[in-house]
Specification:
- The protein has 628 residues and is α+β, with helices and mostly antiparallel strands.
- The protein has 5 domains: 220 residues, Four Helix Bundle (Hemerythrin (Met), subunit A) (Up-down Bundle); 55 residues, no CATH class; 82 residues, Beta Barrel (conserved putative lor/sdh protein from methanococcus maripaludis s2 fold); 90 residues, Efflux pump adaptor protein, beta barrel domain (Elongation Factor Tu (Ef-tu), domain 3), CATH 2.40.30.170; 120 residues, no CATH class.
- The chain has a 6-stranded antiparallel β-barrel with strand order 11-20-23-22-21-24. A 4-stranded antiparallel beta sheet has the order 12-19-17-14, with no helix packed on it. A 4-stranded antiparallel beta sheet has the order 16-15-13-18.
- Strand 25 and strand 26 form a beta hairpin.
- Helix 3 runs antiparallel to helix 4, helix 5 packs antiparallel against helix 6 and helix 11 runs antiparallel to helix 12.
- The chain is elongated and about 135 Å long.
- The two termini are 45 Å apart.
Length: 628
């Protein structure tokens, strides 16, 4: 096709010659077959109408081609098929414009919608089953062809157009069976293209995806038949098919199995084809391969090497290896509560002068915070002064110690009311009561709460100030319930903060709280950190990493494990293209690996990439009670 495109670089004269040649070829076809117009096989067909009626029991075929019987897909199947046709139209428009950018994405979307349609079709049972069963192999092949289109798009326009031809063949067969999918779509064929040369499009104005802008309008109206769906149109010849069959599964399709051991026959290239009897694949002509009862019951899937490459199947070996679990948690910087001090008084009074008048100020131990007038405190000072006078008067009598107990009682009362020894000694020296006594800070730190103003009345026990030392802080991390057994006191921790990019702060776990948060199902872990330069401020967010050595464990890559509800599975590579779904019990996850407690042995080969597509092919219902 690349040679044809090189020839027809459209100068006006060459374009006219090409159009005349296309017209002659169309006339030579006699208006029939893939070059004829009308989905009904009648002249003047309206392309928006439905496909012709066909036998409900078998697809119709003639010299002009093959088509499935008329079907009525259930909505769950028709909707993803309609989405697939939309994705097909997007891919066709790119090829018609000679563009490859975006084609892999659209081919991937096309394959995805066809996979959804295939899953929905295979799930249909009961009375609606006959409406989908004939189409299932063709949906499967259309999906596989779409996967091939994604791969071919990386190799250039010519390979992409060849792959698009395969997509068109099978998707057209599926769409032609349902009148609702046919409605509003047009079919054209290109006489200059080898192999399957038809395509579908939503607009009536022709845009040829096989020739592109060089011959955009080359072609003619065509019907919905798809010709030979086996190898007749540009596929492998029969000799090549026989050689490929021998390469994949040997010359003997039953492979030494007795009749009682055979569950059914399938095609290694098209696992969706199943037959109770041996024979040839209706899609590619290869000999069908016998599948044993054991393989059928275990859900074994046959995937040949070519399809492995197309869907990107990769494997890895289950091995015993040292695992290190890294726990990541979100934390918050908080105050070291052992360094918090509240300032309150034990008697009623009124604030006089306020020395520390705004929060955030740094204060030192013994620094005056404010003055306080309290009638009760003033009276207590007077009692102390009176007791001292009585003590001095008693010194000249026969009982000089008789007033000492009064002095001790008055001094102790002032001490219990938080006057310092210095303040009490000064009171004893001067002999004068202080009307507005200064209240001192009990610790050094920063004022984080201030609840008073000058002139305010205060009550006993009321918090007036809160002072916090910030030389050390706590980081409280929220660790998930399932990871808490991996955390222990004294464990090293690495803390990073968004506000300090590039810095890693190292601390240790000092405490694990003995309760959980019922809403988040997390437990708090306390990490103590030094705070030089006061970079860490309470309520900052922090990321915490904790590492725990788990020792030697049997593990597989985490991409190998598929989850179905509360069950876990891997696909074990049995060799010779056979993949078996195996239920496993998983343990810890660490560094991209999953611990395997049971289900596989060391040395088993498991699928790590492409396993979702393999799962779509697998008949897991016979091997599992429930697959979600």
């Amino acid at each position: 096709m690349s040679k044809i495109r090189d020839i027809f670089r459209p100068t006006p004269l060459e374009l006219l010659a090409a159009l005349l040649l296309a017209a002659l070829l169309t006339a030579a076809c006699g208006g029939d077959g893939e070059g004829s117009a009308g989905a009904t096989g009648e002249a003047g067909h309206d392309h928006g109408s439905t496909a012709p009626a066909a036998s409900a029991d078998a697809g119709s075929s003639s010299a002009s081609g093959f088509r499935l019987p008329t079907l009525s897909y259930p909505p769950a199947v028709r909707q993803p098929l309609d989405d697939a046709l939309t994705a097909y139209e997007d891919a066709r428009e790119l090829l018609a414009a000679d563009e490859l950018d975006g084609l892999p994405t659209r081919a991937r979307r096309l394959a995805g919608t066809l996979a959804l349609a295939l899953g929905a079709a295979e799930a249909v049972d009961g009375a609606e089953r006959p409406n989908v069963e004939p189409a299932i192999p063709y949906i499967a092949e259309a999906r596989r062809a779409a996967e091939g289109l994604e791969v071919a798009a990386a190799d250039g326009l010519d390979p992409a157009r060849e792959a698009f031809s395969d997509v068109s063949r099978f998707l057209m067969a599926v769409a032609a069976a349902d009148p609702e999918l046919v409605a509003g779509r047009f079919v054209y064929s290109c006489p200059m293209t080898g192999g399957f040369n038809k395509w579908m499009q939503a607009e009536e104005e022709m845009e040829n995806p096989y020739m592109g802008t060089a011959m955009l309008t080359c072609g003619s109206e065509a019907d919905w038949t798809v010709g030979g769906v086996a190898a007749a149109d540009g596929g492998l010849d029969q000799e090549g098919l026989a050689q490929h069959a021998e390469h994949v599964h040997g010359a003997d399709p039953e492979d030494g199995l007795s009749g009682d051991e055979i569950a059914f026959y399938t095609c290694p290239m098209h696992p969706s084809v199943k037959s109770p009897d041996p024979g040839a694949c209706p899609l590619c002509g290869m000999d069908l391969v016998a599948v044993s009862q054991e393989d059928a019951n275990s859900g074994v899937v046959l995937v040949d090497e070519r399809r492995r490459q197309l869907i990107g199947v990769k494997t890895a070996t289950a091995t015993t290896r040292p695992l290190t679990s890294e726990i990541r948690a979100v934390g918050t910087v908080t105050y070291d509560e052992s360094r918090l001090q509240d300032v309150s008084v034990k008697y009623p009074g009124w604030i006089g002068r306020l020395y520390v008048d705004e929060p955030g100020q740094r204060v030192g131990r013994g620094q005056a915070l404010f003055t306080l007038y309290s009638p009760e405190l003033y009276a207590a000072q007077q009692d102390f002064i009176t007791a001292l006078a009585s003590q001095r008067a008693a010194r000249g009598t026969s009982a000089p110690e008789r007033a000492d107990y009064l002095v001790r009682a008055a001094r102790e009362r002032l001490r219990l009311w938080d006057l310092s020894a210095t303040q009490i000694d000064r009171l004893a020296e001067t002999g004068e009561a202080v009307e507005r006594i200064p209240i001192l800070s009990p610790a050094s730190g920063y004022v984080v709460e201030k609840n008073v103003v000058e002139g305010a009345a205060v009550k006993p026990g009321e918090r007036l100030f809160r002072i916090a030392g910030l030389e050390r802080v706590w980081v409280e991390a929220e660790v998930y319930e399932s990871e808490l057994p991996l955390v222990e006191e004294g464990q090293a921790a690495v803390v990073t903060l968004p506000s300090l990019p590039g810095e890693e702060l190292r601390g240790t776990v000092s405490f694990i709280y003995p309760y959980l948060d019922g809403a988040s199902r997390t437990g708090k872990v306390r990490i103590e950190l030094a705070n030089p330069g006061m970079k860490l401020k309470p309520d900052m967010f922090a990321d915490v990493r904790l590492r725990r050595e788990l020792g030697e464990r049997l593990a597989v890559p985490e991409t190998a494990v598929l989850y179905a509800g509360d069950r876990s599975y891997v696909f074990v590579d049995l060799g010779e293209g056979r993949l078996r779904p195996q239920r496993v019990e998983t343990g810890r996850q660490a560094d991209g690996w999953v611990e395997i407690l049971s289900g596989v042995e060391s040395g088993d080969s498991v699928v790590t990439s492409g396993n979702f597509l393999i799962a779509a092919e697998s008949r897991l219902k016979s091997a599992m009670d429930q697959w979600q």
